[in-house]
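subagent[fold] <- orchestrator: predict structure for attached chain, return tokens only, no commentary.
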Amino acid sequence: MPVRQWLSAVVILLFLFLAGCDSQSDRAPAIGVAYVGPETLNLRKDLAPKSPASGTVKHGDRLEILATRRRFIKVRTPRNIEGWTDGRLLMTPEQMDSLRHMAENAALLPSQGAAAAYEPLNMHTEPSRQAPSFHRISENAKVDVVAHRVAPRVQNQESAAAGTAKIKPPAPARKPKAKQTARIPRPPMPIAPHPPANWLALSRSPAPETPAVPASAMPEPPKTKAGGAAGQSTPAAPMDDWDLVRTRDGKAGWVLSRLLAMAIPDEVAQYAEGHRITSYFALSDVPDGGRTRHNWLWTTITHSGQPYEFDSVRVFTWSLRRHRYETAYIEKNVKGYYPVETSMTPAANKKLFNEKVGVASPAFSVVTEADDGQVSRTLFAFSGNRVRVVSREPYRRVPEMLDLRVAGSVPAAMETAAPSGKRSWFARLRPDFMQWFK
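subagent[fold] -> orchestrator:
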């Protein structure tokens, strides 16, 4: 065999070997990194609504971004499964770090009571309906309420655009043309009446004058809440109440407050009188006829959308004589904030020590704001059926650290993807081998 043919055969075999070894070089390069937001997410093979699913990913899975088309993003999973999904269902690396940070902070906050969901409920990364949801709370599942926020209700941009789009009215139906008939001439116009005899005197009489109204007596135009005249300012956007909840497995997220119900017994909840219960605690136990009852502390709020958590504090005690709950203490028209805490104070504190029983009394504290804006924390002692104030000290609220607000969408804030792996020297030499056959 000639040497030239032998070299050509070696080059062809080496090229085929390089093509088989470098199978990853044919993959599309990644332009960014994103993470799965929902608990489960189906990837589609194409953008068509009826396109079959190419794979399923879970919350927190790392995805490589391959291409973007409007709000849709083509991604690739660690198993090299590619598909399209909505960019609003993905999270940036900064959002994932903030979500973990929020869960760590929520684990340190005291629970304000257990709550149950009326129906399957989505947990959001922010107190907003448009924020990504990453976990679904099943119906009647218990979660701990740890914080509260009020946020404006933001309408979906797509639905808002659809609502403001002008719809053309249907074209009116055309009336059928009437058959042409012979035209009959109209009768002549009647003769105009003569003017009255004293028409000159009537034309010379002056018209009655209208009394001038001073400017100070003119009514002012009604004003809106923003301070402008009616029609010059837009009405305030409606507000939504959000609760930061913590699941049994350590997840933390925001849910709508109106979709939660505090899991306090119905025999106590019936005294809410239509107000929403925002926190509740069992202060002590009361044995009665083989059953154990509890003395309860709760806070309620009358109207939603308020910047504070409660406006009323109430303590219920179980009456052994009447076998029902009665009010031992109530305070209304307050501006209260989380956290509401209860504790069994050590007996060394003489202020909370009950000498008749010989043990320390249960204690609870509430944070309220006075009319002058001063925030204080009041400590109460509960002994028997009595509630008394122990101390009142100034209180400084903790800065907001639980909001998850990361600017930018996934395509705009995506992380620059690193190479999936170092390319071998065979892959780097492959273009040179291709030039030999040109």
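orchestrator: received. Logging for downstream: The helical segments are 3-21, 93-108, 157-164, 199-204, 266-269, 410-413, 425-436. The longest helix spans residues 3-21.
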